């Protein structure tokens, strides 16, 4: 049941992927910087085991020519670059200072309007390659004009590893905090952090931790937060948000009442709902957040509708729609999508529908 809810198959080897240099000339290349607290495995890649040391590398991921939006075509340990996501190149980076230097150099070499960073934090039951390929897929499908960074925390990569993953979230807070400081130091015009599932707990715990040490840092340093299908208790989120003196803006929360994995998580945790399947925005009315309800969209993975629904990707790829979603009534733009916006004190809820694609055309 858990495996069905998370959309994960047990039959494939998700821990290994060969480097295929020939794929450089076949698919579209998405370069990704990676920081990980996973221990290396005997193959030289990274396992579910925890490491107190953060390791750094850069990867070129090849997106196959026939890629369909919302999918990760994965050949696992026998990829075909014509059909599958493939690792085209790998460069290990020797330590924190070298990582900062490499990232700074990449930003300087980018056009001025592309000197932003998007940091993606994966969720529960993700292997190293699950997170890397998801980062590449998001950057490619949404055509994000930014430098991609991925934080790979030590998930058990097993449907029954939920407790291990919850503990790994606590384990990885210091590593993520250090990474956020490093991203701030490299001269990016803007830093946006997107986290999925249990990765949202890691992000919120880390922002709370930073707030204790450096009050006001998050709001000043970060140019946007996106929580995707957050596997977070609503009351816990409220306490985390209260501790942060001013949430970074914009602060978007993508929710779906059809999220099977979160429905199961709520039952396991003895709660009626998780933040990611919240339907009533009243509980978040104290906070300047935008709740984006995507329940009406069909997706291959209901726990990641944002990244697996081609219709939703098409809608959100329109910068005007994204702007409305982030700003809501607070910017006076709700009229652009009539009947889709609800305001409860400081919070705004947007209910998106495939019908809105008609407005986009």
Automatic annotation (TrEMBL):
It comes from the Bacteria. Pfam families: DUF900. InterPro entries: AB_hydrolase_fold, DUF900_hydrolase. This is Esterase/lipase superfamily enzyme.
